[in-house]
Amino acid sequence: MDGDQARAIVLTGSGGHFSYGLDLPAMMEEWAPMIGPAADAAPRTRFLEVIRELQAAVSAVAECRTPVVAAVTGWCVGGGVDLIAAPTSGSPPPKQGSASAR
Fold this sequence. Notes:
- By secondary structure, this protein is mainly α.
- 41% of the residues lie in helices and 6% in strands.
- It has a two-stranded parallel sheet with strand order 1-2.
- Belongs to the enoyl-CoA hydratase/isomerase family.
- Pfam families: ECH_1.
């Protein structure tokens, strides 16, 4: 095994909790112009890009080939729940006909 290759990934929180969720009041300063009543197509398209960036983080965990484990302590709210639900075994699905698929 290569020395730089991780055998597993453990996701943890900090400060005694895994995730309190998104800080909406803090994000609204940036997001309000994108989703407010005066927003036209360009800012709303930028907001869609922001949401896709957030989703990409969860998708990266879900698609990771290395085993991922979430070590949850304390609160786990909002996107943290999506994140802890995303880890997989890191193994590809069993091939049809293999012993693990039967």
